[in-house]
Fold:
Amino acid sequence: MTMTPSLIIFAAAYLLYWAATTRYDTQMFQQNSYRHERWRRWWLSTGEWTSRSQLLSLSSAAIFAFTWHPALLYAYAAWAAVFAWAEFSMRYKIRLVYTMRIKRLLATRTLLTAAAIALTASYAPRWTLSVAMLLTMQGWVVVFDLINRPVERAVTRWYYNDARRILRSMPGLTIIGITGSFGKTSTKHFLHRILSEKYNVLMTPGNYNTTLGVVRTIREQLKPYHNVFIVEMGAKQRGDIREICELVHPSIGIVTSVGEMHLETFGSVENVARTKFELIESLPAGGLGVVNIDSEAAARYSCRTAADMLTYSVDNPEADYRAGDIGYSAGETTFSVTTPDERRDGFMTHILGSGNILNITAALAVADRLGVPVAKQRTAVAQIRQIEHRLSIRRSGGITILDDAYNSNPAGARMALDVLSRFAAEGRRIVVTPGFVEMGARQYDNNRELGRHIAMSGCDMAYIVNEVNRQAITEGLRECSYPEERIHVVASFAEASAHLAATMRTGDVILYENDLPDSFK
Structure:
């Protein structure tokens, strides 16, 4: 194959375009938790299989099977450069994390792509550019992941066994599992702060709530001097919690809630409950299970366990631990806690919302079990800091921002809207939200109900972001006669922010409620 100027320019543009589509394909695979079925549903539901980049790759492959006319090569180079520039300049909400698995996946894709093009050039030169273009299409990530699967399984097995070895070397370690449809991350942080008054505590960082995330935490961060290990446990399907429990063997477990999350994979709230209570069922005799009975589905569910059980609540007087007398003032929340033995007054925190007081109550129940003095509990609660993007508050230029971007459930949204409605605002109350996803058949109804709650909370303006839940939320708003001129439909948070920047006034309060990942449009 003679490398003419047009072919050289084509090759340079092709490399850029291949790198851009490969990065996007890999990023979406990672955002869909490396699960083939979940990636396939995203790929089909969002129309990515008919995207402009897919059509460019397919049409170019067909054309190049018949001719490599220089004019076509130059035209392709121009289009490919535009697509590559657009992809590389795009700012993602969740960036691609170059884990070792991703690096192995990219290496396999690079080597096999190069091999396929080289073999075609050697034995069927006419088809070289067609094969090259077909290899830029999205979807190959699944094929290359299947090729890597034996290696990935072997690597995972080695990491898993190494984590088990580390845990066996620390028989005195107290392991606490926390799971729930919502509230588990906040509860983890609150519990970590309170127990740190007496113990050396490690918790799983960020969203490391899968088996592999827990394995990585153990191998990289767990040290012999740690006394307590708090493990956040997430689940997308039945058996996920049991798998983590079989690794860490917790002696204390907290179920923060059971709700309509990930119904696309669970199928029903009953299956969600069964999965969350895998944690309680795994606890040993003499262990402790702590369950939120303000969550109706959690309160109804019964399971067999050898552990002792405690319940906690804000609303239910039958709970073993109940928070009450919740009061809000400038910058702080006060509350009391009734335990099985006594009533404790004088708790104060800078955290907003009754849901967060509920989460603190769960942490206090475990702190009692582990012997943290009540005085130190009060000190720790007063020093708890806001968790970024979980109803955190900040002020800028006279504008107050309530950032609840990492909340993605109806109960948490109602709490955030309640805080917004109670906020002593001198200006307008504004909510910006894309609604909820992964709720199966309940998604439309839950988002319509969100629209109703926005209308009833007294918000002065509502920005509905993205397309996925637009119709449902606006329908809920209109059912409550919310004024049309106060509804703003935008394509992205960036568009909402640009509009707000031009219209905001001193004294305005803005609630950012949920923020969908890039895999949702």
Observations:
- Residues 234 and 461 are 34 Å apart (CA to CA).
